[in-house]
Amino acid sequence: QVQLAESGGGLVQAGGSLRLSCVASRRAFNPYTMSWFRQAPGKGREFVARIYWPGGSADYADDVRGRFTVSRDDPKNTMYLQMDNLKPEDTAVYYCSLGNSWGQGTQVTVSS
Predict the structure, then answer these.
(1) What are the pLDDT tens digits along the chain (112 aa)?
(2) What is the rounded end-to-end Cα distance, in angstroms, of the chain?
């Protein structure tokens, strides 16, 4: 089973930006998708974005489309989530997933 590790979370003011990273312990076999989810306090885990291998096309949740961008770096087995124009409602623990594997999460806090 592949191991995933997220990083890049932190505290930012509304309107600011953060870039999250998710490093996989090995390259997965094509075709596959890697995804970002988030979980806010008291809420369930929700989908944020996903990127497809091969091809690199992406899907986004409605409330992040136009503000977040998912990308990948194949040689580094890494997926990124560029988050711009952050809002307080984006505050959550962000997780990456690949198949049945999940990372430990990284906290994003957006202050108003």
Answers:
(1) 899 999 999 999 999 999 999 999 987 777 789 999 999 999 999 999 999 988 889 999 999 999 999 999 988 999 999 999 999 999 999 999 998 999 999 999 999 9
(2) 39
